[in-house]
Amino acid sequence: MKPVWLALPLLTLSACAVGPDHVVPDPVLPPAYSAPAPALPVADGLWWQGFQDATLDALVTAALAGNLDMAVARERLVEANALIDAETAGLRPRVDAELDAGGSSVLSGSGNAGTSASTGLVLGFVPDIFGAQRRRIERAEAQRDALAFDQDDIQRTTVATVADRYIDWQRSRARLELLDTSLALQQQTLDIVERRAEAGLSADLDVQRAAADLASTRAQKGNLEIALASARRDLAILTGQAPTGFSGLEDVAVQLPDFAGGPASGVPADLVRQRADLRAAERDLAAASAAIGVAEAELYPALSIAGSLTGDLGAADRIVDDVIAQLGAALSLNLTDGGERRANVRAAEARARQAALVYQAVLLDALGEVETALVTIEAIEAQSVELQRAVTASEQAFDQLNALYREGLASFIDILDAQRTLISSRQSQLESRASHAKAIISLYRALGAPVSPDPDPGSPT
User: Fold this and answer.
1) pLDDT tens digit string along 159-197?
2) Most-buried pick from 129, 317, 392, 410 (CB within 10 A)?
3) How is domain 27-88+136-301+348-447 classified at the architecture level of CATH?
């Protein structure tokens, strides 16, 4: 028993854990974004509700409930919690039960035949002297937290993608509706030119030009229908449904939703709290830091304690005979391994530095996404004013030239140019409205806006 007691002083070291303690990064951030916040009132409630579109609200609700990427993320979190339990079990002794039985018979000579049986308990315990197991638990918990934030980030991107694709779907429908209006306008022009040509007032070349414009516009319908089907398919997949059985969009009005408010863009420091992907990167850094301690612990001695309590199964009046208790300890110390363990430490340190760089990269990307969204919104808002003027002016110009052409006071080239300008300006205005809605979505995505009433995303559970 004496060697056991000689090893016990090592247990007094179990309060320490080798390796660096993780320090949460405190990045130096600018006090404000360079681009101004959008000149919109701050929307109340969940951000996509600012579009005031019941169909979009229903699609987001369906995605939050049925999106398969989110379901996978939830199962990864369940797995991570189970791995924490498994690592925590390594701090506790392990006890196993054993039962042995055997028999013998005399084949020749004068021996004794009989049976024998024994039972016992086997104890195994590895004290966490240098904190390797605690660092493993710390790493597992940090990895679990990172997965929790990853889950929130998947929710953030899924909701934004649903909103973005819904805008694409409505834009394609509006483009098709505008295309029908343009086709009717061009058909009307072609009819006028044909009548004038029959009366000898217009050249056949004018008829051919009008017919060519009409055919060119009609040819755009195929691409718009493809875009419409693509957006519808994506919305089905995002909500966890098969595209063939996707329903809920049949009776929706053709209307690009306008945003009723805007986000409070805040300051760059808010991103550290709001962006789930940034918080996940910080937790990945914490896990990498803990892994250094796991690797460093391999440089130190390891103590293991083993014990057993066994007894022979006797006759019926004596269930157990000859109870034997054993307890022992083993101390292992690495003398030489060719530098493998120290190389593992250096590798763990390099992975931690990589995680720190990834954190910085995610932060810079987040700042850049917000800046880009703010600049885009500002530019589109200025553009929309000019586009409205262009639409108004082109409508007036076309109406005036159309009247003059009917009276023979304007050339066909003039009315054809006016018609093209009107169609182009209407298309540009529609695209601008869609781009503005998508830029608002991008800004909310970049800011890490929550997708649930809980203002603190990614609280690990």
Assistant:
1) 999 999 999 999 999 999 999 999 998 898 899 889 988
2) 129
3) Up-down Bundle (1.20)
pTM for the full model?
0.84
Chain CA centroid to CA 376, Å:
23
Determine the pLDDT at residue 327.
84
Question: Euclidean distance between the first and final Cα of the chain, in Å?
Answer: 45
- Nearest in space to 362 (alpha carbons), one of 286, 271, 264, 460: 271
Contact call for residues 366 and 278 (beta carbons, < 8 A): yes
Residue 185 tokens, joined = 């306008």
Which residues, 6+ apart, have CB-to-CB distance to 276 below 8 Å?
A: 149, 150, 152, 153, 155, 156, 448, 457, 458
Residue 376 contacts residue 265 (beta carbons within 8 Å):
no
Residue 63 has a CB neighbour count (10 Å cut-off) of 24
Spatial contact of 422 and 398, defined as CB atoms under 8 Å apart: yes
Q: Quick check: 274 and 448 in contact, CB under 8 A?
A: yes
List phi, psi (to 5°) of 201: -95, -15
Residues 6+ apart with CB under 8 A from 275: 153, 362, 366, 447, 448
- Residue pair 355/362 in contact (Cβ under 8 Å)? The answer is no
Tell me the pairing of strands 114-125 and 94-104.
Answer: antiparallel
Checking if the pLDDT of 242 tops 70, the result is yes
266: Cβ contacts below 8 Å, ≥ 6 apart: 447
pLDDT surpassing 50 at residue 457: no
CA 246 – CA 406 distance, rounded (Å): 49
And the tokens for 244? 């063939």
Distance, CA of 44 to CA of 430 (rounded, Å): 26
Domain extent listing, the chain: 27-88+136-301+348-447
Q: Render pLDDT for 54-97 as a digit per residue (tens, 0 to 9).
A: 999 999 999 999 999 999 999 999 999 999 999 999 999 998 88
Confidence band of 461 (pLDDT split at 50, 70, 90): very low
345: three-class secondary structure by DSSP: helix
Asked if pLDDT for residue 15 goes beyond 60, the answer is no
Would you mind telling me the total number of residues written for the chain in this entry? 461
